[in-house]
Write a structure and sequence with these properties.
Blueprint (H helix, E strand, L loop, with lengths): L15 H13 L5 H17 L3 H5 L3 H10 L1 E6 L4 E6 L2 H7 L29 H16 L6 H13 L4 H8 L4 H7 L4 H6 L4
Antiparallel strand pairs: 1-2
Helix pairs in contact: 1-2, 2-7, 8-9
Length: 198
């Protein structure tokens, strides 16, 4: 019996175009609860500007966001690699991030992604459930080629297109080996079209 190989699908980058589309769709989606909307918006902003992994994002507390806004940088720990990395704040990142937090109401120890609508609730969401929720929503709005890793791939591809040194890219994203970083750098359709020679 002949078995067919599964097709390796193209993984798409999330660029500014896709980011704006997913943010607009989330804000205008009346089918989701307010707490879910806030979780999605916080997730998409953080992933777009930092290239974080979802499990890193789930560990962030309100105090981390405060530190990031005050100092323009904050250290986070990656469970996957058991190492620290820094997040950096740009003007655009600050503009997108600030409206998503109410520092008067929320407790510093709160996770930034949590269950329920109670602002003081600290209960996190199961990691597998959270990953499935994010990926399902991305696919419903952007299409089948998109997952949470599309943010990571997108930011590294943007760095690559600008000619940023691979060591800077690797340190920014939290990789210990630049070969891992290079795997993420994928040209967009526009990059290819602009460089066609025939």
């Amino acid at each position: 019996m002949k078995t067919t190989k599964s097709i390796k699908r193209i993984k798409e980058n999330i660029t500014i175009v896709e980011f704006k589309k997913i943010m607009a769709a989330t804000r205008g989606d009346d089918s989701i609860r307010e707490n879910t909307r806030l979780n999605l918006l916080r997730t998409f902003v953080m992933l777009y500007h930092t290239g974080m992994r979802l499990n890193e994002l789930q560990d962030l507390r309100l105090q981390d966001i405060k530190e990031l806004l005050e100092n323009e940088t904050v250290k986070v720990v990656s469970k996957k690699t058991s190492s620290e990395r820094k997040l950096y704040l740009t003007k655009e990142f600050k503009k997108n991030l600030t409206p998503l937090f109410d520092f008067e109401i929320e407790d510093d120890e709160n996770r930034i992604i949590c269950k329920g609508s109670n602002k003081n609730k600290r209960t996190g969401i199961n990691t597998i459930t959270f990953i499935q929720q994010i990926n399902k929503y991305l696919k419903s709005v952007l299409g089948s080629g998109y997952t949470s890793h599309s943010f990571r791939q997108g930011i590294l591809s943007d760095f690559g297109a600008k000619g940023v040194n691979i060591k800077i890219m690797s340190k920014f994203i939290g990789h210990s080996d630049i070969k891992t970083t290079l795997k993420y750098v994928q040209p967009t359709d526009e990059d290819i079209m602009m460089n066609l020679i025939r």
